[in-house]
Design goal:
The chain has one helix and six strands; from the N terminus they run H-E-E-E-E-E-E. The chain has one domain. It has one helix at 2-7, and strands spanning 9-13, 28-32, 37-39, 46-49, 58-63, 68-73. The chain has a two-stranded antiparallel sheet with strand order 1-2. A two-stranded antiparallel ribbon has the order 3-4. By secondary structure, it is mainly beta.
C-alpha cells in the first residue's frame, strides 16, 4: 500500500477553505500521481515526463515557503498573462 500511495495515487484532506465553494475545508480528494510524470517511489525523482499542468487543474505540491503540502488550482501556465484585481 505504501508503494501505491507513493507512486500511483494518494488521498489528501483539504486543510483550509481557500478553494470554496467547489472544495470545502475537510473534504478529501484522491490524486493520480502519474498525471504529469512517472517517479521513483518515495522520491521526487522523475523518470518520465508525461504532461504539464493545465489551467484549471487541481494540484498537490510541497511548499518550502509554507513548509507544508498545499492543494491549489492552476490559474496560469508559462506564457499566460495574469491580472490581480481587488474584489
Amino acid at each position: 500500500m505504501s508503494v501505491f500511495r507513493s507512486a500511483v495515487a494518494d488521498w489528501y484532506e483539504i486543510p483550509i477553505g481557500s478553494m470554496k465553494p467547489t472544495i470545502e475545508k475537510g473534504d478529501r480528494i484522491l490524486t493520480g500521481k502519474m498525471a504529469y510524470d512517472l517517479r521513483i517511489p518515495f522520491t521526487h525523482v522523475s523518470l518520465l515526463r508525461m504532461a504539464d499542468p493545465q489551467t484549471g487543474d487541481i494540484i498537490v505540491f510541497d511548499s518550502k515557503v509554507a513548509d507544508n503540502r498545499l492543494i491549489n488550482r492552476v490559474i496560469g501556465v508559462p506564457g499566460d498573462t495574469l491580472k490581480i484585481m481587488n474584489s
